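Run Carbamoyl phosphate synthase small chain through structure prediction, thanks.
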Amino acid sequence: MTTSPRIPHEPAVLVLEDGSRFPGRAYGARGTTLGEVVFATGMSGYQETLTDPSYAGQIVLQTAPHIGNTGMNAEDRESERIWVAGYIVRDPSRIVSNWRSEESLDAALERDGIVGISGVDTRAVTRRIRDAGAMRGGVFSGADAALNPAEQLRRVTASPEMAGQNLSAAVSVTEVRVIPASAERIGNLAVLDLGVKQSTLDNLAALGFDVHVLPQAATFADIQATDPIGVFYSNGPGDPSASDAQVSVLREVLDARLPYFGICFGNQLFGRALGLETYKLTFGHRGINQPVVDKTTGRVEITAHNHGFAVEAPIDGVFDSPNGYGRIEVSHVGLNDQVVEGLRAHDLPAFSVQYHPEAAAGPHDAHYLFTRFRDLVIATQEASK
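Sure, done. The structure for Carbamoyl phosphate synthase small chain is below.
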């Protein structure tokens, strides 16, 4: 058992772009941070949330009241650093009590320069976001907590909105990285890193793929250079409408009839490649408890989500791709709000889902999707012989 440093009672304030103010205490690094304020409903897995590159540019509020009791460790990290723009919690744990813990959460936040706030009425903030939608906000602590409220609000409203932002370059690898297959090898898989989680790469390697992780600016020629038997587009932050280059590359992948699997951001870009539109959700889906129905089997899955944008498509029946890729069907639907949660091509070896089948942390209901992709790759190889 490790005792964390005593949580100080230095003042801090959360300011939303509509002028709402929520006082609290400084937590993590001191200063100012700006971003889109969103809430995540998972009751566990805060370390995976914090280190998920998909949360870049977002100030994350945990709806679970007690955060930090199991500390932080290197094994469960989804990347090499904490990516959230800021962090909002109600009751941070003053004591770390877990045999796997290597440091406290507040120490990790401070080390990575993440400005946070604790002691906030997180229920009130969540209700505000649910009513008005995700909005820009700022956390002000240290000397900045004493700034004039009008100046704090000015800084918030002067910050960029999430719509229209391309954030993949900020979170992607800059050089090719290869993860060898950890099961019987079946071939090379090209992964476009738009903000991929380490657990996703581990799951793909466990299927028998030599996983070639490519920078987000990779061209189709770069993909071909890996001699791939399939292509995977990862999760990631930002607005899919601002990723024209990645959509163009994906269309070349589809034209070459390479097996394709996309998750989260990769689902949105698949929709755009097919000729569909995307739109911003009011407050998004973030958490490890989201019910989704697989229309193919009728099975309901409890799934892990992190997305603020979605694909616009008819959820019933089969329709033609506006870009000429044949018959398309919405394969998965969110049961809370009927949002498109998956797409399947009938005339191409390609499908995608809007959520995280690796679910780290979270339920394993959707893990079968990795196996479905491996089977699709193998079937495509057999058909080409």
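The chain has two domains: 2-158, 168-383.
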